[in-house]
């Protein structure tokens, strides 16, 4: 199944568990089931995620920015609406609006074999704008409370330039310890450029 959003120049395909992805009147919605997540604990020895989470991904070309306002129906700790980038099964990253553990928070995970985990800032309410950008093998994460003034969250690389250039990007839902979480994304926007300034709010 492919899903084509009018604001994206590439089709999206589902990966992982079934999530009932749907798009209606500018809003993309999905459901993460119980204990669904993408995370490889840094304290563990396995390079395989303990579980999987539903993703809807496509392949942009060249430099880009993917922007969306993310909203999550928080019911349990670590429920999240996520923008996700996938380079290989052992190299991927996510930018989350997550209940972490009891307040909505912008969180990030970058996985190179094992995952790291970092919180950025607390959000008032159940929604926030998220943005993934790429140039070459570099990716940047930003978040915004109004969709205009952007807070720099992190910059990082994944893989070499060829693998990063073929990355899949898109949307994810998770409910690592809960019984499920409904997420939605609207104000979806695509730009074929890297941000002019990473730390100046643009």
The radius of gyration is 15 Å
Task: List the total number of helices.
Answer: 1
| Percent in helix | under 10%
Question: What class would the helix/strand composition place it in?
Answer: mainly beta
| Proper CATH architecture | Sandwich
Question: Spans with pLDDT under 50 lasting ≥5 residues?
Answer: none
Percent of residues in β-strands: over 45%
Provide the domain count.
1
Q: Tell me the span between the first and last alpha carbons.
A: 35 Å
Number of strands: 15
Topology:
Layout: E1 13-15, E2 22-24, E3 27-32, E4 55-58, E5 64-72, E6 80-88, E7 91-99, E8 104-112, E9 114-115, E10 118-122, E11 127-135, E12 138-144, E13 151-157, H1 161-165, E14 168-174, E15 181-191
InterPro entries: ConA-like_dom_sf, DUF1349
Protein name: Regulation of enolase 1
Organism: Streptomyces pristinaespiralis (strain ATCC 25486 / DSM 40338 / CBS 914.69 / JCM 4507 / KCC S-0507 / NBRC 13074 / NRRL 2958 / 5647)
């Amino acid at each position: 199944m492919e899903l084509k959003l009018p604001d994206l120049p590439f089709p999206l395909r589902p990966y992982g568990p079934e999530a009932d992805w749907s798009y209606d009147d500018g809003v993309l919605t999905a459901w993460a089931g119980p204990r669904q997540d993408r995370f490889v604990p840094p304290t563990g020895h396995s390079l395989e995620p303990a579980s999987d989470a539903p993703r809807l991904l496509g392949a942009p070309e060249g430099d880009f920015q993917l922007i969306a306002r993310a909203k999550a129906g928080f019911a349990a700790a670590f429920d999240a609406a996520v923008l996700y980038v996938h380079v290989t099964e052992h190299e991927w990253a996510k930018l989350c609006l997550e209940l972490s553990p009891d307040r909505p928070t912008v969180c990030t995970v970058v996985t190179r074999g094992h995952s790291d985990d970092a919180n950025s800032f607390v959000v008032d309410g159940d929604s926030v704008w998220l943005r993934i950008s790429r140039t070459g093998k570099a990716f940047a994460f930003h978040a915004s409370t109004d969709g205009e003034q952007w807070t720099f969250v992190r910059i990082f690389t994944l893989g070499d330039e060829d693998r990063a250039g073929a990355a899949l990007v898109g949307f994810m839902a998770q409910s690592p310890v809960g019984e499920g979480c409904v997420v939605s994304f609207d104000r979806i926007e695509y730009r074929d450029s890297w941000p002019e300034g990473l730390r100046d709010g643009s």
